[in-house]
Design brief:
3 helices; 89 residues
């Protein structure tokens, strides 16, 4: 019996699925990326301590595939930079 596929890998494999902002929040929490709730409007910001800038994601359902692909790429970069930072310590 195969183990459960991590959420990041699920998003990588199927960015067209019916992803919600709750899925985004769970993924960000798993990888220590801040998800800033909107003060106005409906766009959330994902912020990594290792990457300059942020990614803006609308909370509308379903979240469109380009936003999911961008988030996956951001997390991949975040993980790589975090790994490099830990090697430099």
């Amino acid at each position: 019996m195969a183990g459960k596929v991590p959420l990041l890998e699920q998003m990588r494999r199927n960015p067209r699925a019916d992803w919600t902002i709750d899925d985004i929040a769970r993924l960000c929490a798993e990888h220590q990326i801040e998800l800033e709730t909107p003060s106005r409007g409906s766009h959330y910001k994902t912020i990594s301590p290792y990457i300059a800038g942020h990614l803006t994601i609308p909370a509308a359902r379903p979240i469109k595939p380009p936003y999911i692909r961008s988030l996956v790429m951001m997390i991949d970069l975040h993980l790589e930079l975090r790994r490099q930072a830990s090697l430099g310590d």
